[in-house]
Amino acid sequence: MDADDCIIVGAGPAGLTAAIYLARFHLSIRLFDCGSSRAASIPCTHNHAGYPDGIAGTELLRLMLAQAEKYGARREAVKVTRIQPQDGGFVVDADGRSFAARTVLLATGVINNRPDMDELVHAEALGRGLIRYCPICDGYEVTDKRVGVIGTGDHGMREALFLRGYTRDVTLIADGGAHDLSDSCRAALDDAGIVRLDGPCTPIRVDGDEIVVNTAAGEQRFDSVYPALGSVIRSELAVAAGARATDEGCLEVDDHQRTSIPGLFAAGDVVKGLDQISHAMGEAGVAATTIRNLLAEQQPIRR
C-alpha cells in the first residue's frame, strides 16, 4: 500500500496544529479523529491569545480544521486501534482498515476523571461554568466567588491552593468519604484558610445559578466546582507499540517530541507537561517541523 508521509492520531489543538504545518510543508498526511477532543467541551476559553472576548472550544477546533483542510489535510472520522512499526515506517489500523505511514504523530490527549453525577446534569453544569476542570484556564472567572474543589491528597491540596489565588472562599471536599491528607497538606490548607469537608460528594445537582454538593456536613452551595480527580492519559496505542511512558502513562519524548520509537512522535496532553492549548500547539509545531526534516533526510523534499 502507498504510504503517507505522516498519520496524525487525534484532532484536538495539537493534532490540528501539526496538520496545518505538515500540509503547508507539502507533505501527504491523514488526520484520524474519533471525535473526543477535550477541547470540544470548553464552553468558552478566555486565555487563548488572539480572542479577547473568548472563543468556544468547538469553534476553535472548527476554525483550525478549516485551516488545515485549506492546505490539503484530510480528516477521517475513525478510531485507531493499533500502531505497528514495520519496514522503517508504520501500519496504522483504524475501523477495520490498514494504512501505511512513514511517520506517526500521536496527539490523543487525556480524559478528565469526572465526579459521580448524572451525565445530563454534568453537561449542563459544564456548559454554564458551574463545573470547571482547568483553574489555569479559567480561574480568573471565579475571582471572589464561592469555589468547591472535589478531591483529596496532595493533588486536591495543590488545586485548592492554586484557586486560593483567585478567591478567599475555597472548600476542599473529599470525593469518597474521609480526607486522606498528610500533616503537611493539612497545615498548608489551614494556613491558606481553606475549609475541609469529608464526602461522600454525591449527589451533585444544579439549583438555579448554584451547584450543590452533598457532604458529611450537609449540602454545600458554590458558584463553581473544580473536580481534582486526575485524568486518564490516552497513550495506550504508543505504549502497545513499545514506546516508553511514565508511571502515570505520559509518553516520554525528547526536545523534538520524538518518542523512544524512531518515527513516532507525540504532542499535547498525552506528553507530560502543562495541559494547555497553547503548550500543545507549540509542541505540535516542533513535532511537525522535526517530522519534515526527518523525511527530508530520508528523501529530498523538492518541488
Automatic annotation (TrEMBL):
Under the heading InterPro entries, the entry gives:
FAD/NAD-bd_sf, FAD/NAD-binding_dom, Ferredoxin-NADP_redctase_2
Molecular function terms in GO for this entry? Answer: oxidoreductase activity
Q: Name one Pfam family in it.
A: Pyr_redox_2
| Keyword Oxidoreductase tagged | yes
Q: Which UniProt keywords apply?
A: Flavoprotein, Oxidoreductase
**Where does the FAD/NAD(P)-binding domain lie?**
5-284
Q: Which domain of life is it from?
A: Bacteria
Which source organism?
Sphingomonas guangdongensis
This chain belongs to the protein called: Thioredoxin reductase
Q: Does the keyword Flavoprotein apply?
A: yes
Please name the SUPFAM superfamilies in this protein's record.
FAD/NAD(P)-binding domain
